[in-house]
């Protein structure tokens, strides 16, 4: 099993920044990719950014240029740096991990989530 715990959420004004961290523990050797997802009230869960062990990354279009995902293998942590936050970024942010060696479409493990609220 793999355990994921998110941290770093909170309340910030529009234009501000937050740094989310995902701590990965357990059978970390089985984890090939980690992604950050979010779900706003009344909306479907969506991927915001993902990083693969190969170094490949993906971003939601609205996150490009504002969000950066990075991994620290020594600390088993994946960070999502979010800058220039907008009210529409308000959501619960989840960390997910995948065992798939390629792609960002199959996800096996979930974290409990952390709330991000951006005020206008």
Question: SSE layout and pairings?
Answer:
Layout lengths: L1 E6 L2 E4 L4 E9 L6 E7 L6 E7 L4 E3 L7 E6 L4 E6 L8 E8 L10 E2 L3 E6 L1
Parallel strand pairs: 2-11
Antiparallel strand pairs: 1-3, 3-8, 4-5, 4-9, 5-6, 7-8, 9-10, 9-11
Beta-strand segment tally? 11
* Rg measurement, Å: 13 Å
Structural class: mainly beta
Q: Quote the distance from N terminus to C terminus.
A: 40 Å
Strand-residue proportion: over 45%
String of helices and strands: EEEEEEEEEEE
What is the average of the pLDDT values? Answer: 95
State the low-pLDDT regions, or none. Answer: none
How many H/I helical runs? 0
Instruction: State the major sheet.
Output: 7 strands, mixed
Shape verdict: globular
- What is the share of helical residues? under 10%
Description:
The protein has 120 residues and is mainly β. The termini are far apart. The protein contains no helices and 11 strands. Strand 4 and strand 5 form a beta hairpin. Strands 2, 4, 5, 6, 9, 10 and 11 form a 7-stranded mixed β-sheet that branches. The protein is globular, with a radius of gyration of 13 Å.
């Amino acid at each position: 099993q793999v355990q994921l715990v998110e941290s770093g959420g909170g309340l910030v004004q529009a234009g501000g920044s937050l740094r989310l961290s995902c701590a990965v523990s357990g059978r970390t050797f089985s984890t090939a990719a980690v992604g950050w997802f979010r779900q706003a009230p009344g909306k479907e869960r969506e991927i915001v950014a993902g990083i693969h062990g190969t170094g490949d990354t993906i971003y939601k279009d609205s996150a490009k240029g504002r969000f950066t995902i990075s991994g620290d293998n020594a600390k088993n942590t994946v960070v999502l740096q979010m800058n220039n936050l907008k009210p529409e970024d308000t959501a619960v942010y989840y960390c997910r991990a995948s065992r798939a060696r390629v792609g960002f479409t199959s996800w096996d493990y979930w974290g409990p989530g952390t709330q991000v609220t951006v005020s206008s």
